[in-house]
# Entry
Amino acid sequence: MLNGAQVIAAIPSLVRATIPELRDGRWMWLGCRVMEVRRRRETWVAFCRLRYLDWRRPWLHSGDVAVKLDGRRCDERAALALTWLAKAGLRAPCADRVPRLYGCDATRGVLIAEMAPGIPWRALLVGERAALVDASECAARWLARMQALSGGATAGGAATRGYTIASVAADLLERYPWHTEARAAVRRLLAEDGSPAEDAAPVAAHGDFHPGQVFVADGRTTVIDWDTFGAREPAADVGYCMAQLLAMSYFDTGSVAAGAAAARAFWGAYRCAGVGRWPRVRLHAAGGLAQVLRYALSGRPDRAGELLGLWARLMACWLDGDERTIFAESAT
# Structure
């Protein structure tokens, strides 16, 4: 596994080899300055300022790009998603967009895309409520617009990555059988997940749609990180996102109140234009909460007593949830 210094040293050659226009001479390389490097589990992300000369338009061009490096072979799902969504109209100068794709090398696990402008939706959980509500409504309309795209299920193909309710629930039951309330909530979740879906046909889905993946800036909404792109039922992204809002609010502010307000605004905007229906949305919200719980406890097992009790109540609340009252109930 590469360290940070090795990643920085490798960036120039990776960029020149991955962007087709630099590789075949349509652009003249002028440099790539690394501004920041972050590690996310086994993946490195370098944020860079790329400079080049386009021979068709012979003046200096520059762009802020994110170079994502897995260091191992990966599929081209994210690149395919960015390409298809851009062609479908989710690109500049439209307000709803995905980042521009610069290049992808699946063999080496490298993807280079435009840095999303603005700030993450998540950052607004600790800010003014009006800005949070506005961003939540924008994110909902973005998601509904993507789901409405013709041919979305075909473009996404079978979902191969991302959480499943069954696997998360089974893992929680195995790890924490001693917590009575959590065990009861997870068993209810498993039982309801096994019931027949009553939702619309599969649509294009992000697969990990949450407030850290949505950036807002001056009326523009940009969604990043498309590794889990695939065909899913419409309710999957909707419910999962609202669960993440509650969880991120709790971890960022110590309360789910801001997340509940954001989820209310998100659902209110989505239900006007989206095709996901409440019975399945609330199920995926409960499943998303279970996913967050499993992830949080894998890193902080010392918080099991605190989180299992709260999460059991939240999951049960959403499994019983009425869309008219669930947001107030979640915040109490």
Observations:
- The chain has two domains: 4-114, 119-331.
- The mean pLDDT is 93.
- Residues 4-114 form a domain with the Phosphorylase Kinase; domain 1 fold (CATH 3.30.200).
- Residues 278-299 form the longest helix (22 residues).
